[in-house]
Specification:
260 residues, mainly alpha, 85% helix, globular, membrane
C-alpha cells in the first residue's frame, strides 16, 4: 500500500469514526475553555503571568487524561481497521488497558530526548564560556552532531506508541520494535509524516482564516466560543487522521491486520 493510498484510507477511517471524533471534540473543547480564562492575561502583564499554578495544574491534568484518550483512540482505531467496526464503549476499555504502558513509553522517549538536549546544552554553554576558537568550533560541531543523532533517534522511536497498542506489548519491546521497523522503511515513514504535516498545515490555514473572519464578525465572548469550537473540531479530526495513518502503515507493513 502506497503513501497516497494510506492517506486516503486514513481520511476514510476518520470520516467514518464519528464517535471517536465526538469524544475528542468534547475533550478538546473542555480543555480549551478550561485554559482560556487563565491564558487571557492583561495587556500590561508579563508573559510569565500566563504560567500560573492554575494553568499548570490544569495542563498536567489534561495531559494525564489525554494519555487515557490517546490509548482509547488508538485501540479503537486498531479495532476498526481490523474489523471494520469499533464500539464507543471500548474507548475507555482500551484507554485504561494501555494507560500505564503508553505513559511509560512516552516517559522513556522523553527521557532519551532530554538526555540528548542536556548534552547539546552543555556543549553550547561550554563553547560560550571558553575563548579558544578551535575549542568553540569543536564544541559547536559536537552539539550539531548530537542534535542530528537525537533527531534520528526520535524518528526511530516515533512509532513506539502505535506499535505498543498494535501488538499489545510493553514499552521497552515497543521501542525496540519501533527502531527495527523504522529502519526498514525510513523513507516511507518520513514521506508519510511530511505529507500529513503538509495536509494538516493546509487545512489548519483554512481553519485559521475562518477563525479570523469569525473574530472580526463577532466580538467578545461569542467570537471566542465559536473559534474554540472550530479549533476543537479541527484538532479532533487531526487527532484521528494522523494516528489512523501511522497505525495503517505499521499494520500494512507488518501484516498485523488480516483485513488489509
Amino acid at each position: 500500500m502506497g503513501i497516497m493510498e494510506i492517506v486516503k484510507k486514513g481520511f476514510g477511517i476518520a470520516n467514518k469514526n464519528v464517535q471517536l471524533l465526538l469524544v475528542l471534540f468534547v475533550f478538546n473543547l473542555v480543555g480549551t475553555f478550561l485554559r482560556t480564562p487563565f491564558m487571557q492575561a492583561a495587556p500590561t502583564a508579563p508573559a510569565t503571568a500566563n504560567l500560573s499554578p492554575a494553568i499548570i495544574i490544569i495542563s498536567i491534568l489534561l495531559g494525564l487524561i489525554g494519555v487515557l484518550i490517546f490509548g482509547g483512540v488508538l485501540g479503537s482505531l486498531k479495532e476498526y481497521i481490523q474489523n471494520q467496526k469499533a464500539q464507543l464503549g471500548h474507548i475507555m476499555q482500551y484507554g485504561t488497558k494501555f494507560y500505564l504502558r503508553v505513559l511509560g513509553v512516552w516517559a522513556l522517549i522523553l527521557a532519551i530526548l532530554i538526555a540528548f538536549t542536556l548534552v547539546v546544552a552543555f556543549a553550547i554553554s561550554l563553547a560560550m564560556a571558553i575563548k579558544n576558537l578551535v575549542g568553540v568550533v569543536i564544541l559547536l560541531a559536537v552539539a550539531l552532531i548530537v542534535s542530528g543523532v537525537g533527531l534520528y533517534v526520535f524518528i526511530l522511536l516515533f512509532m513506539a506508541p502505535y506499535i505498543l497498542i498494535a501488538d499489545d506489548i510493553g514499552p521497552v519491546s515497543a521501542l525496540k520494535k519501533s527502531i527495527n521497523f523504522v529502519r526498514g522503511c525510513l523513507g516511507k515513514i518520513v514521506s508519510l509524516f511530511v505529507m500529513l504535516v503538509l495536509i494538516t498545515v493546509g487545512i489548519g490555514f483554512v481553519v485559521g482564516v475562518i477563525a479570523g473572519l469569525i473574530t472580526l464578525a463577532l466580538k467578545g465572548a461569542a467570537g471566542q466560543i465559536i473559534v474554540g469550537i472550530v479549533a476543537s473540531a479541527f484538532n479532533s479530526y487531526v487527532n484521528v487522521l494522523l494516528p489512523a495513518c501511522f497505525l495503517l502503515i505499521y499494520l500494512v507493513s507488518s501484516k498485523s491486520s488480516k483485513s488489509l
